[in-house]
Design brief:
about 10% helix; 4 strands; two-stranded antiparallel sheet
């Protein structure tokens, strides 16, 4: 949520309510998450006070939950719960199917 209390993103309201899955350090989530999550364990809950330069910064961004755009340079608070960690990545994901490099080429 933003400092004014407006909720701009919520995993319970996005992606059919499933928890977010991502790799730490792969720039798949906000930088503040990449920095903090390695210090947490499965089952831990935390409130992250993320400065704007570790979230959206000065980029024009529409709130994932809709509504007004996120003000430029907004600091964001996240309430997170680590459901599971150290999970082996699934190799048969949609990203692998769509972005995999060919084994042969016509070049």
């Amino acid at each position: 949520m933003l400092k004014d209390g407006r909720v701009v993103t919520d995993s319970h309201s996005e992606g059919m309510g499933y928890p977010k899955e991502f790799s730490i350090g792969a720039s798949e989530v906000f930088k503040c998450w990449d920095l903090v999550l390695p210090q947490l364990n499965g089952g831990d809950k935390a409130t992250l006070d993320c400065p704007s330069y570790y979230v959206w910064g000065d980029a024009y961004t529409q709130a994932p939950l809709g509504g007004e755009p996120i003000p430029l340079g907004s600091d964001v608070d996240f309430e997170i719960e680590v459901v599971q960690c150290s999970k082996e990545p699934d190799r048969d994901t949609l990203a692998d199917k769509y972005f995999a490099q060919p084994h042969t080429t016509t070049m």
